[in-house]
Recover the amino acids of this structure.
């Protein structure tokens, strides 16, 4: 593996980046690593209170009058791991595994989103032979948790008129627009009662693929929270509900969920779960063939939610919107969607968290958010809006988009494509903060981001980096 990594400028930096824990909210270490590198190399560097890092490098000879170009990626990564994997994302490095032309991690997310983009930026900065215009290279924090880093940026520090964002994951596809998003949380006080003479059980929904709540929302993959909610609705008359927990992050389709219940009707429970496993086999045959519901006995629990609380939680899970909401079938693009991402009852309140997305602002605030608000009001949940970020409107005329597409076709001999996506990028915020910014986003071929099966194509990394260098040479 080391032989593969050390002969590539980009992969060598990615290897170093992967040694530094960088879960969203824990970017101080990677931020300081970037600052120290910049100081060692003599680059002009700025670090703000949110740990965003901006590095500036003068133009190479002959490019002094070229437009200033902003290269940008984010430091943080989504941290997910497979069941049974022991890994502390606060201190353990990501272990890289090379399989043929792919890089995987060892049972965790890889962090190629957006570690590869970071590594490309560092390789460009380090290459003194590369011809390029004046560069502003930005590494942001908190992208995976509501884009908190880019929100805190001071736009006055930038002189760029061109933005190349390196946070896309489809080789030969140039992103030129994306959805905006809003995060929502619903809260319900938990009212409990004592229970007696009932056996306690864990119901576990697992084996689902999960995925990115923007990129993968249209793939028909099961949402573990919704599946568990459907089962609980079917068995609600035979159980006491003691707790429920599913999902980990708003931008991840939940692949696992579980509930603790108590019941005197074990035979009925087994019969119902057998029925629902047959339903899952039919409904998710192609998207999630390994989906399964398990029933396990556990130590008896002597307290459960009262009947009113139980019914409200189960109704909410089943009534609230999830999945694709609207779609433009002409261009095969999801316009708006909702992801029921997290359910938790570990404190004195039940919490249900959503990420809703749309490239049309009214779909977020006048449609999905309003429907969620009304259901919350009906069921007695408190409605709370969290972080949001703007969309990036597709421009009919873009110098940098056309330059990138032409360069790709010249370098590879393959056709390039431009698209808008349903996932979110920081370009919208950057275009708000830096006036008259012409933007494009591209990257190498990645698969299954935000899951423990995340992997990246090695040859695509090299091809994409060579493209980036060629594009920079052409900007005069």
């Amino acid at each position: 593996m080391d032989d593969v990594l050390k002969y590539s400028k980009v992969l060598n930096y990615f290897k170093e980046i992967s040694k530094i824990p960088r879960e969203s909210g824990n970017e101080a270490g990677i931020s300081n690593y970037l600052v120290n590198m910049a100081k060692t190399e003599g680059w002009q560097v700025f670090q703000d209170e949110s740990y965003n890092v901006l590095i500036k490098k003068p133009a190479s000879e002959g490019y002094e009058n070229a437009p200033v170009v902003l290269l940008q990626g984010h430091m943080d990564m989504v941290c997910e791991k497979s069941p049974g994997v022991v890994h502390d994302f606060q201190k353990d490095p990501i272990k890289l595994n090379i399989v043929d032309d792919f890089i995987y991690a060892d049972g965790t997310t890889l962090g190629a989103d957006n570690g590869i983009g970071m590594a490309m930026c560092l390789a460009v900065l380090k290459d003194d032979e590369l011809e390029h215009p004046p560069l502003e290279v930005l590494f942001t924090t908190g992208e995976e948790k509501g884009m908190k880093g880019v929100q805190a940026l001071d736009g006055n520090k930038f002189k760029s008129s061109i933005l190349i964002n390196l946070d896309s994951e489809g080789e030969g596809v140039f992103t030129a627009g994306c959805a905006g998003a809003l995060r929502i949380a619903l809260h319900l006080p938990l009212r409990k009662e004592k229970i007696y003479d009932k056996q306690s059980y864990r119901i576990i929904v697992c084996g689902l693929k999960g995925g990115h709540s923007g990129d993968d929302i249209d793939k028909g993959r099961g949402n573990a929270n919704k599946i568990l909610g459907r089962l609980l609705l079917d068995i609600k008359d035979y159980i006491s509900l003691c707790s429920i927990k599913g999902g980990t992050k708003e931008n991840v389709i939940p692949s696992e969920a579980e509930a603790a219940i108590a019941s005197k009707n074990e035979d009925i429970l087994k019969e119902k779960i057998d029925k629902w496993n047959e339903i899952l086999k039919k409904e998710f045959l192609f998207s999630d063939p390994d989906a399964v519901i398990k029933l396990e006995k556990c130590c008896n629990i002597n307290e459960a939610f009262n009947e009113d609380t139980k019914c409200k939680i189960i109704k909410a899970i089943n009534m609230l919107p999830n999945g694709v909401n609207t779609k433009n079938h002409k261009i095969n693009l999801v316009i708006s969607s909702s992801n029921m991402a997290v359910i938790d009852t570990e404190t004195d309140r039940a919490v249900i968290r959503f990420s809703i997305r749309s490239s049309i602002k009214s779909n977020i605030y006048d449609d999905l958010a309003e429907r969620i608000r009304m259901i919350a009001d009906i069921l007695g949940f408190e409605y709370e809006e969290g972080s949001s970020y703007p969309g990036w409107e597709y421009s009919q005329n873009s110098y940098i988009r056309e330059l990138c597409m032409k360069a790709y076709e010249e370098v590879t001999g393959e056709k390039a494509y431009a698209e808008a996506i349903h996932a979110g990028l920081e370009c919208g915020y950057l275009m708000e903060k830096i006036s008259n910014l012409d933007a494009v986003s591209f990257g190498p071929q990645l698969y299954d981001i935000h899951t423990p099966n995340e992997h990246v194509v090695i040859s695509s990394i090299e091809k994409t980096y060579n493209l980036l260098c060629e594009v920079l040479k052409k900007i005069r």
In short: The first strand starts at residue 44 and ends at 47.
